[in-house]
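Researcher: We're teaching a course module on how sequence relates to structure. For the next exercise, students receive a sequence and then see the predicted structure as C-alpha coordinates, so they can try to spot secondary structure elements on their own. Here is the exercise chain.
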Amino acid sequence: MRKEYKRSLIKFSNYSLCVTLPKSMLNKLDLDKGDEVIISMKRGKIILEPDRELSEGSGSKSSNKKGDSWEPMPEISREEDKE
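Model: And here is the predicted structure for the students to work with:
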Protein backbone atom coordinates (compact mmCIF):
# COMPACT_ATOMS: atom_id res chain seq x y z
CA MET A 1 0.00 0.00 0.00
CA ARG A 2 1.30 3.43 -0.93
CA LYS A 3 1.68 6.00 1.86
CA GLU A 4 0.71 9.61 1.18
CA TYR A 5 1.40 12.67 3.31
CA LYS A 6 -0.11 16.08 2.78
CA ARG A 7 2.17 19.14 2.96
CA SER A 8 1.56 22.78 1.94
CA LEU A 9 3.70 24.91 -0.36
CA ILE A 10 4.86 28.11 1.35
CA LYS A 11 5.84 31.29 -0.52
CA PHE A 12 9.55 31.85 0.11
CA SER A 13 10.17 34.81 -2.20
CA ASN A 14 8.74 36.20 -5.42
CA TYR A 15 10.38 33.36 -7.34
CA SER A 16 10.38 30.37 -4.99
CA LEU A 17 8.12 28.13 -2.97
CA CYS A 18 9.21 25.72 -0.24
CA VAL A 19 7.74 22.69 1.46
CA THR A 20 8.37 21.53 5.02
CA LEU A 21 9.32 17.99 5.92
CA PRO A 22 8.17 16.21 9.09
CA LYS A 23 10.74 16.20 11.90
CA SER A 24 10.31 12.44 12.41
CA MET A 25 11.27 11.85 8.77
CA LEU A 26 14.28 14.18 9.05
CA ASN A 27 15.43 12.35 12.18
CA LYS A 28 15.17 8.94 10.49
CA LEU A 29 17.15 10.23 7.50
CA ASP A 30 19.66 11.95 9.80
CA LEU A 31 19.12 15.31 8.11
CA ASP A 32 19.54 18.67 9.81
CA LYS A 33 19.54 22.37 8.95
CA GLY A 34 22.10 23.11 6.24
CA ASP A 35 22.38 19.53 4.97
CA GLU A 36 22.10 19.18 1.23
CA VAL A 37 19.60 17.01 -0.62
CA ILE A 38 19.29 15.94 -4.23
CA ILE A 39 16.00 16.79 -5.96
CA SER A 40 15.05 15.10 -9.21
CA MET A 41 11.89 14.47 -11.16
CA LYS A 42 10.84 11.18 -12.71
CA ARG A 43 7.55 10.55 -14.51
CA GLY A 44 6.06 13.74 -13.09
CA LYS A 45 7.01 12.92 -9.48
CA ILE A 46 9.47 14.78 -7.30
CA ILE A 47 12.19 12.66 -5.70
CA LEU A 48 14.11 14.12 -2.76
CA GLU A 49 17.02 12.18 -1.27
CA PRO A 50 19.91 12.95 1.07
CA ASP A 51 23.21 13.82 -0.61
CA ARG A 52 25.09 11.02 1.17
CA GLU A 53 28.25 11.41 -0.91
CA LEU A 54 28.63 14.99 0.29
CA SER A 55 27.67 14.11 3.87
CA GLU A 56 30.00 11.14 4.20
CA GLY A 57 32.89 12.99 2.58
CA SER A 58 32.59 15.93 4.97
CA GLY A 59 32.51 13.85 8.15
CA SER A 60 28.79 14.23 8.80
CA LYS A 61 27.08 12.32 11.59
CA SER A 62 25.19 10.37 8.94
CA SER A 63 25.12 6.63 9.51
CA ASN A 64 22.16 5.63 7.31
CA LYS A 65 22.93 3.50 4.30
CA LYS A 66 21.01 3.58 1.05
CA GLY A 67 17.95 1.39 1.38
CA ASP A 68 17.61 1.72 5.16
CA SER A 69 14.02 1.47 6.23
CA TRP A 70 12.22 3.83 8.57
CA GLU A 71 8.89 3.86 10.32
CA PRO A 72 6.21 5.60 8.22
CA MET A 73 4.11 8.46 9.54
CA PRO A 74 0.38 7.91 10.00
CA GLU A 75 -1.55 8.02 6.75
CA ILE A 76 -4.07 10.76 6.07
CA SER A 77 -7.53 9.64 5.17
CA ARG A 78 -8.91 10.83 1.83
CA GLU A 79 -12.23 11.39 3.66
CA GLU A 80 -10.53 13.99 5.91
CA ASP A 81 -9.33 15.86 2.79
CA LYS A 82 -12.89 16.36 1.58
CA GLU A 83 -14.01 18.21 4.74
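Model: If you want an answer key for the exercise: Residues 23-29 form the longest helix (7 residues). Residues 57-67 have pLDDT under 50 and may be disordered.
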